[in-house]
Amino acid sequence: MGHSNPCGSSTGSAVGVSAGYSPLALGTDSIGSLISPATRAGLYTLKPTPGSVDMSGIWPVSIHFDAVGGMAKSVIDLASITDCLLEPDAKKSFQTRELVDCLSKSFRGLRIGFLDPRVWHYPPELIERIEEVDRQIINAVDDAVSIIRSREAASVEYPVSVPPVSSLNRDGCMSTTTATLYEMKSSVSHYLSLADVDGISTLEELVEFNKKHAAEELPKDHPDQDWLLKGLHSRPSQEEYENDVAYFRHVARDEGIEKLFKEKNLDLLAFSADCLFFEIASAAGVPIASMPLGILDYNGRPFGLGLVAQGGREDLMFQFMSAFEANFPERGLPSFPTLESKKL
C-alpha cells in the first residue's frame, strides 16, 4: 500500500477537503473507505451506523456495511453535516437533540478503552513495517491515553482486546466478502434502475458493455473488471450468505465489540487508525470515526486516532472528538515528498 498512498475509495473527497477545495465533503464507507483516506489527509470523519442515513442514489457494496459520511477539518463542521445526514429516528438514543449540541469539549463521564498499537497495526504484507513509524504511532497513542487520563472524570482502560481481523475468516475465506458478492447483482440492478442508463439495467449488461467499450472502460492502467465478474459468476448461495452474515456479526459484534463494552463498562473504543480494525467495526455494524493525531516524521504523512461506539451512539463519539480537538494540538497539514524521495 505504501506510506504515502492516499487510500480509498473516498480519496477524492478527502484530498479535496485537505487541499482546501471545499470545507466539507461526502463519501461512502463499506469497509474503511472513509476512515483510511480521511486519516491520511489529516481530517475528521465519521461513518454513521449503517441503516441510519438515506442511501438513495448510491450503489452500495452491502446493506450490512455501507453508510454515507462526512469529512471536515473541524469537529463542528463534521457534526453539522452528520446532523443533516442522519434520519430522525437515528437520533433517538442521543443525549441531545442534535450532534452540534454534544460538543462539550470535555471527556467528562466518558469510559474509553484503547487497543494496543503494538498489536493493532497494518500487516507487513500490506504495508512495509518501518521502526521509526511504528515507534512514533505507538508513542502518540500512549501520549493520548496519558492526556485523557489526566483530564477530569474520564475513565480509560488500556490496553483492551477484541478478536483479530483473521477471526472473520470462515472456511478459508473472509466472511464479509460473501455478503458483497451475494448482494452485487441486486445492488447493481437497483442502482442502474435509478440511474436510467440506456441499455444497461443488470450486472450482465454492465459487464458486456465494458467488454464492447474496452478502450474507454478497461484502459491499460485498469484493464479488468474482475470484481464484477466474481459477482456475476461466483455468487454464493443464499444459505452461504445468511450463514456468513450471522458468523461475522457474531464474531465482530456479539463476541467482539459488544462483549468488550459490557465487560469493561465502556462507552467508546479508540485505536490507532493505522490498522485494519475498521474491518471488525464494519462487520459489527457500528459507527466509526477518525481524527488527526499527528504527522509522521518519516515522510510528512498524517496518521490518526480511530474511534467506535455502539450503534446509534454517535453523540458520545462527537463529545469525545470535541474534547480531543480542544485538548490536543491543531491538526497538522500533509506535506508532499518529491518524486525522488525514497519515503513514498
Question: How would you describe this protein?
Answer:
The chain is α+β, with helices and mostly antiparallel strands and 344 residues long. Helix content is 40%, strand content 15%. The chain is built from eleven helices and ten strands. The chain has helices spanning 11-18, 35-40, 75-85, 131-150, 175-195, 203-212, 214-217, 226-233, 238-264, 277-284, 314-327, and strands at residues 24-29, 44-47, 67-72, 111-115, 155-160, 169-170, 173-174, 268-272, 288-295, 302-309. The strands form two sheets. An eight-stranded mixed beta sheet has the order 1-3-2-9-10-8-4-5, with helices on both faces. Strand 9 (288-295) and strand 10 form a beta hairpin. The longest helix is centred in the C-terminal third of the chain and has 27 residues, at 238-264. The model has no long low-confidence stretch (mean pLDDT 94).
The count of DSSP E runs of length 2 or more, i.e. the number of strands, is 10
Query: Alpha-carbon distance between the termini?
Result: 10 Å
Stretches with pLDDT under 50, minimum 5 residues: none
Main β-sheet, in a few words?
8 strands, mixed
Which word captures the global form? globular
Report the average pLDDT across residues. 94
Strand/helix succession: HEHEEHEHEEEHHHHHEHEEH
Q: What radius of gyration results from the CA coordinates?
A: 20 Å
Distinct helical segment count: 11
Strand content: 15-25%
In terms of quaternary structure, the protein is single chain
Helix and strand composition category: alpha+beta
Q: Which strand order spans the largest sheet, edge to edge or round the barrel? A: 1-3-2-9-10-8-4-5
Helicity range of the residues? 25-40%
